[in-house]
Amino acid sequence: DLQLSDRVQQIKPSPTLAVTNRAAELKAAGKDIIGLGAGEPDFDTPDHIKQAAIKAIESGFTKYTAVDGTPGLKKAIIEKLKNDNNLSYEANQILVSCGGKQSFFNLALAYINKGDEVVIPAPYWVSYPDMVIIAEGVPVCIETDESTRFKITPEQLEAAITDKTRLVVLNSPSNPSGVAYTKEELQALGAVLRKYPNVLIATDDMYEYIWWADFAFENIVTACPDLYDRTIVLNGVSKAYSMTGWRIGYAAGPAKLIGAMKKVQSQSTSNPTSISQVAAEAALNGGRDCVLPMVKAFKERHDYLIAALNTIPGFSCIEGDGAFYAYPSVKEAMKTAGIESDVEFAEKLLLEAGVALVPGSAFGTPGYMRLSFATSMDVLKDAVARIKKVLS
Ligand code: PLP
């Protein structure tokens, strides 16, 4: 019998990709399935970005680039961070990778030692704990619920930090809850973090541009500039510019850490795709005007969906500040249906309503469902009607 590594046996495949695949399988078998599992915008990549990539191919920009990214793209990232976030970085503090996923993977492998604890607020992006486990670290999750709008409190953070803690991960706006931290909330977390100078902070700003809150976007280092030397900023073009397939993410932080992450990347993928880098450069240099119509559509769908979900018996959902997910509690609906596991409940909705959702246990908080509203209003209306029909 083929023996696999202990490492790979400790991790699970991405549950969000699994739901998407399962929905695709049922569809291929002729079932009428609405997929609300996928975490990607339904819009096309804006044309000026595609044109830049086509030009790159035609001009022969199809070879290896510097491992850490082309000078042009790194410059565009530095300018983005300056203009949007008032953060200053030099070129040796920037690493471009094959999606935000690889940025975090590089961080985990370059920074975490066996047994190191990584504090991860739940509900979390599904990949953080598993990537920490691959790096032989220990995820320490802080469970939240709607009473704090799925945000950790300073007290919870303080209680989670031990002498083994090396990293705290923040993600705002959040996948899956859609909520974002305010400047004041970040400053309160910063006051705790300041007491633990050996703890690094990763801020995952992937959904920065998908935003409609009535307060301005902030991350831990814009809110607490004194934490600059201990913070790594993770961001990318996947969600902002509807470029999930191009695979470009980036990290900005301490030069020593970025250098170590670059070394990891140099022994795995080398540079991200040359053509995608040109496209990402055009995206960032083009600013966020092309993003605004997408955000407007996401906001309209959000407003519709949250209200509609709250009319489903046993569902209750808070409003988000951004991203493109709704994260209702379905605890009452599960009780009514006599189902204890949210995985089973998701399976019921998939088979009986034909709606694919991701159960909250995938994000570390059982009893919820993540619905992506990166799909048309008509599809959302149909999905809500089908779920209602099955549950009433
Ligand atoms: N961070 C968060 C919070 C995400 O939701 C995702 C994608 O789902 C990523 C990072 C990674 O994005 P990508 O690797 O597609 O750039």
TrEMBL record:
Record-stated family: Belongs to the class-I pyridoxal-phosphate-dependent aminotransferase family.
A biological-process GO annotation: amino acid metabolic process
Native organism: Thalassolituus oleivorans MIL-1
Superkingdom of the organism of origin: Bacteria
Documented EC number(s): 2.6.1.-
Entry-linked CDD domains: AAT_like
Stored Gene3D superfamilies: Aspartate Aminotransferase, domain 1, Type I PLP-dependent aspartate aminotransferase-like (Major domain)
Residues annotated as domain Aminotransferase class I/classII large: 31-387
Protein name: Aminotransferase
Keyword Transferase assigned: yes
